[in-house]
Please model this.
Amino acid sequence: MSPHQAPPANAKDIASPWRDDGSSRIPSPVYTSREIYDLELERIFYGKHWSYVGLEIEVPEAGCFKRTAIGERSVIMIRNRKGEINVLENRCAHRAMRFCQERSGKVKTLVCPYHQWNYNHDGKLLGVPFQRGVKGNGGMPEDFSLEDHPLNRLKVEVRNGVVFACFDHEVEDLETYLGPEILACFDRTFDGRQLTLHGYSRQRIPGNWKLMMENIKDPYHPGLLHTWFVTFGLWRADNESQLRIDEKGRHAAMLSRRAQKVTENVAEGVTSFRQNMTLHDMRLLDIVQEDWWGQHTVCMTTVFPNVIFQQQVNSLSTRQIIPVGPDAFDFVWTHFGFAEDSEEMTQRRLTQANLFGPAGFVSADDGEVIEFSQEGFRQAPEFSTLCELGGRDVGPTEHNVTETLIRGMYRYWREVMEL
Model:
């Protein structure tokens, strides 16, 4: 454990809201309780879990930095003079000030404006004003050492341009953490090709952070909630699909092949289907098969606890989850492409990105249902959700008519939380 870490919270002090040993019925307090949320921060976000921080291309040169957060702790991803990526806690070693307020930039050194303590790109303290006093007065004690007061430096792994960090330096390596099934899905997109940054979308969603993880582990809803998906065949219950899950049940991937033809039976029991819905701008459906896809046109990968890697036809993005309390989280979309993309492909990726993000033709639906679900949890503390489509067990499937991935995440969550 890092000397900068707080001691772990104690699950024994929290009454478990669960009524059985399973993971198919999730009680409301799991989404609303402050004490459960605080335990999640300690055991999940600040414990032995890798969290997504950003893409390497966001800090292209020495001194370039990006401010973000893991859990509620602000961190700075910065490249040093050797070209290495560091992730440093945004908290001055002097008076705990979150000294970095800019989202991104480039600096020679990191300086806290409060008392101008000055750090290099590795977090090493370089200097302290008035360390030797002024005209023989004051100054730091004789045994004060700059080396004893660095910024908190997280453990970092970079895999094919994607940066992960962990507060606990005893965490397993990233490859083991992801497991072979999810690693294959990750490497399908991030295979070493040079990435290019296209931009960001940001929103705050008034719901528990796990609801977004559930949303992307839930193949039940896309063909029902999202008129766009079902009407234009991008995601339907009868698409050829595979659901993959790691051994512990915490990570998952949903792969699907877009229907080439939208048949009339899609309307059966699906009120979101719009037979007469047409587009004024057909570029939104200008989908071009890319060789690296293989047979699947969609791959949505969730890496617990804080990131979703999205490949929806030609649109690519990372979706970072930053909790800001038990009932809200910030959701940051980073849209990217590949350096080898033609100008036409870049424009295609950007055009299709309009389906997603805060005002996306598809994703706006998700933000709204998460908000409404959170309202339902607040008004019914005794309520439990039911996630039993496809049974009560956990495992990979060759179809998407199941909620097994949600059950897998909560099976793991209960193990870690001891609730």
